[in-house]
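Predict the 3D structure for this chain.
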Amino acid sequence: MENAIAWFDLDFKIKSDNNIDEALLRLFNLVKKSLHIYFNIENSSDIHEFLKIAAAKNSVDHSFIEWIKVKGIPRLKSIDFENLPSNDQFLAMIEIDEYCLKCEMDFKEPEEVRGCIITIINSIQEYVNICKQLIKGGE
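Done. Predicted structure below.
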């Protein structure tokens, strides 16, 4: 499986024996796949090439492309993936996002896929914050 973490231009190493890293990899692979389907792009080497190809298309969701460039990528890059919480709550939150996006992969409602992607990207740091608070509270 191609590393979707690198495709998103994120620099952290996936530990194969770590359930959270594996869940994140599945989630990022699913987001990557859904972006390719949503914008009808067969393949791209990374998020930057993907955005160039998507922007060159005429009948495309330019506001979503702009959101990915201006907000989505910077939000992902600001997350400290090397120091994620390692508790069941964080894993569950990631797996719920994965499940929700999988449920939209029939693309009956493309706006729902776009909404899921935005929510996922916006929520990861919030999940980290919530789980770190839970861990602190339990000490």
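The mean pLDDT is 92.
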